[in-house]
Amino acid sequence: MAEIATNPNDYKVVTFTNKTSFAFTPELGCMYDSLPIFGKSGASVEPGESVVLPYHIGNLLAKNLAKAVMNRNAPEDAKGIPTGVSLWDEESLKRTQASFITEMYSEEKPAAMTETDRLMAKVEEYKQLVEKLIPDAAKTATGTPNDAPQSPGNSPAVYSDKADVIAELEKRAIPHDKRKSKDELEKLLVS
Fold first, then answer.
1. Do residues 17 and 100 lie in contact, with contact meaning Cβ atoms separated by under 8 Å?
2. How far apart are CA 97 and CA 67, in angstroms?
3. How far is Cα 37 from Cα 19, in angstroms, rounded to an integer?
4. CA dist., res. 70 & res. 66, Å (int)
5. Average pLDDT across the chain, whole number
6. How much of the chain is in helix, strand and coil states, percent to nearest 5?
7. Which residues pair with 70 in a beta bridge?
8. pLDDT at 140
9. Mean pLDDT calculated for residue range 9-31
10. Of 18, 188, 160, 185, nearest to 100 (Cα)?
11. How far is 164 from 84, CA to CA, in rounded Å?
């Protein structure tokens, strides 16, 4: 299967900074694919404010802001009527556009994932979400906490290390030799 060619800017991250004296609003072109882009204020990108964006979005915003600046600086005759002089050429537009963005870094291209890998990643994501939202979910599923030893009437407890086994032996007042292996000490608990 042939790999799809990508734009070298696809994984670049830039800082877009409004270096003007006016707020850059969606009405002036502060949007991407008809979706508004806001700064901290939530209504625009304020003068002097910076926003970290993917290259393609930052580049488009910089171009739109450059056009807004050049429109505001358009020459007028005495009556406020435009003179008909071209507002910008490609070079002046690119220079002004470049002044509003700064390249920060490039992200690595994500590794291709099979559908199974993607679904299994979702399983892990949901599992962590449930554990975060319902911390006692592990206890509820088994009926007892995972790390607590079960009573002698239930199935045998699983001890994580030798120290847990020794602690249980001492709790039950069972004589033992601490130098023995974990397996040998666990046998004393079953007897």
1. yes
2. 8
3. 16
4. 6
5. 81
6. 40, 15, 50
7. none
8. 53
9. 92
10. 18
11. 87
Q: By C-alpha distance, which of 97, 77, 75 is closest to 86?
A: 75
Length in residues, the chain: 191
Q: What is the pLDDT of residues 129-150, one digit of tens each?
A: 888 777 665 555 555 544 445 4
| Separation of first and last alpha carbons in the chain | 62
- Please give the structure tokens belonging to residue 108: 């690595």
Which tokens go with 30? 């502060």
Unique residue bearing structure tokens 């397996």: 183
**Which range has the worst mean pLDDT, 28-42, 73-87, 88-102, 157-171?**
73-87
Domain boundaries, the chain: 12-106, 113-143, 149-191
Rounded Cα distance between 186 and 160, Å, is: 11
Q: Which of 43, 7, 6 is nearest to 22 (CA)?
A: 43
Q: Residue 57 has what pLDDT? A: 93
